[in-house]
Design brief:
By secondary structure, the protein is α+β, with helices and mostly antiparallel strands. The protein has 2 domains: 4-75, Arc Repressor Mutant, subunit A; 86-219, 3-Layer(aba) Sandwich (Chorismate lyase), CATH 3.40.1410. Helices cover 33% and strands 33% of the residues. The protein is built from 9 helices and 10 strands. It has helices at 4-18, 30-37, 41-54, 69-72, 103-109, 148-153, 155-161, 180-185, 229-240, and strands spanning 57-60, 64-67, 76-79, 89-100, 116-126, 129-139, 166-176, 194-203, 208-216, 221-224. The strands form 3 sheets. A 6-stranded antiparallel β-sheet has the order 4-5-6-9-8-7.
Length: 241
């Protein structure tokens, strides 16, 4: 987990980027940033690395670090997992099996009555602590072959390797109560606050390639949304009617 100083620098740089404080898209050098924030260059490097992994910054060898202008005008979402180094993220597979698609899954994936889906369940471990249980589904029509190693590594990467073009993800967050089984799997009390995160991944042709739900504890999610004055006034006008 990032230190309080690193988290502050990350949040402050995000704010400055969205406020367009860096007009020429180039950030000050690590030495300058370290001086501005009164921290070591190592702390600055950790913060910049995190922002690069989020896609908000781009590192150009020998030229410096630049703002990804494609991201600046769009909403940015980052969560607890985003701030954990990849080496500290692990998965513990519970199962992977092929099952008949339920009526609900047939509708989600646009499947026929006898079509099958891959159903998987895994525990996600962050900083050596079990924090999430993910249950997901993928249509066998798109993925005839599936392995535990693929699920543990990256479904998105596998989909792209198979030639599919990913368009976007649609995610819903709500509060949830842990079941007895979930609490046991996560080694926590049943009264522990939890999030239910439902997500669907869409391809460029509009089809869904993965649908999942995650029960998460010790979870935080931050949204950075550019203010749209036109949308704001339109909503006020509609509410006044």
């Amino acid at each position: 987990m990032a230190s309080p100083k690193t988290e502050f620098i990350i949040e402050d740089l995000i704010s400055k980027i969205y406020q367009k404080k860096y007009i020429d898209s180039r950030l000050p050098s690590e030495r300058e940033l370290a001086s501005q924030y009164h921290v070591s260059r190592y702390t600055i490097q950790k913060a910049l690395k995190q922002l690069i992994e989020m896609g908000l910054l781009i590192s150009q060898q020998g030229n410096g670090i630049f703002i990804n202008e494609k991201m600046r005008g769009n909403p940015l979402v980052y969560n607890s997992a985003t701030l954990v180094p990849y080496k500290d993220l692990q998965s513990q597979m519970i199962y992977l099996k092929k099952a008949p698609a339920t009526a609900k899954l047939q509708k989600i994936f646009n499947l026929k009555e006898n079509d099958m889906v891959w159903e998987f369940r895994q525990i996600r471990i962050m900083n050596y602590k079990k924090t999430q249980i993910e249950t997901g589904y993928m249509p066998c029509t798109l993925f005839p072959v599936m392995t535990l190693e693929i699920i543990e590594d990256s479904i998105q990467y596998f989909a792209m390797e198979e030639g599919y073009r990913i368009s976007h993800f649609m995610t819903n967050y709500s509060s949830a109560r842990l079941t007895k089984e979930e609490a046991e799997l996560l080694n926590c009390k049943g009264s522990t606050p939890a999030f239910l995160i439902k997500s669907r991944g869409f391809l460029r042709d509009g089809s869904v390639f993965v649908s999942s739900k995650i029960i998460a504890v010790d979870y935080e999610c931050t949204y950075v949304v550019p203010f749209n004055k036109d949308v704001f006034y339109r909503r006020r006008k509609n509410q006044a009617r």
